[in-house]
Design brief:
The chain is α+β, with helices and mostly antiparallel strands. It has 2 domains: about 80 residues, Sandwich (ATP Synthase, domain 1); about 45 residues. It contains 2 helices and 10 strands. The strands form 2 sheets. The protein has a 5-stranded mixed beta sheet, with no helix packed on it. Strands 4-3-6-7-10 form a 5-stranded antiparallel beta sheet. A hairpin with a 2-residue loop joins strand 3 and strand 4. It is elongated, with a radius of gyration of 16 Å.
Length: about 140
C-alpha cells in the first residue's frame, strides 16, 4: 500500500520524518487528512494536534502552535512555529502557559497588546486540543 511521507519541521530542527498511511493536520479552515495521492495544496496550521496514522491506528501525535502545511501527492510537510511530541505535554504545562499569557496581556502596552492577545488565544486553543486528545 502506498504511503505519504511526513515531515514536521521547526525553525531550529526537524522534529519528525516518517511515512504513514494518513496524516491529520489542524488546518486553518478545519482539520484535513492527507493520504497518498492528495491534491497539492498549502494551508495555514492552527494550534492543535497533528495525528500520524499507520496500520489503521494513530501511531504519533504532535502538539503544534501554528504554522504552514505544504501537501503534494507524495508528501505532507508542516513548518511549525512551535511543536513537540504530544506525550511530552501536560495539562499543568498548558495551564501555566495560559496563566503566563494572561499576565503578559494584563501588563501589555498598546504596542504589545496584539501579540499578548494572540498568545492567550494560542494557549487556550492548545488546552482545548490537549483535553480532547488526552481523553482519546
Amino acid at each position: 500500500m502506498a504511503k505519504v511521507a511526513f515531515s514536521l519541521v521547526m525553525p531550529e530542527r526537524e522534529l519528525a520524518a516518517t511515512e504513514a498511511d494518513m496524516v491529520i493536520v489542524p488546518g486553518g479552515d478545519g482539520d484535513f487528512g492527507v493520504l497518498p495521492g492528495h491534491i497539492p495544496m498549502i494551508s495555514t496550521v492552527r494550534p492543535g494536534v497533528i495525528e500520524v496514522q499507520d496500520g489503521g491506528k494513530t501511531v504519533r501525535r504532535f502538539m503544534v502552535a501554528g504554522g504552514f502545511a505544504e501537501v503534494t501527492r507524495e508528501r505532507c510537510t508542516v513548518l511549525a512555529e512551535e511543536a513537540q511530541p504530544f506525550e511530552d505535554v501536560s495539562a499543568d504545562q498548558l495551564a501555566k502557559r495560559l496563566r503566563d499569557a494572561r499576565e503578559a496581556l494584563a501588563e501589555a502596552t498598546p504596542a504589545t497588546r496584539s501579540g499578548a492577545e494572540k498568545a492567550v488565544s494560542v494557549a487556550q486553543d492548545l488546552q482545548r486540543a490537549y483535553a480532547y486528545y488526552a481523553a482519546r
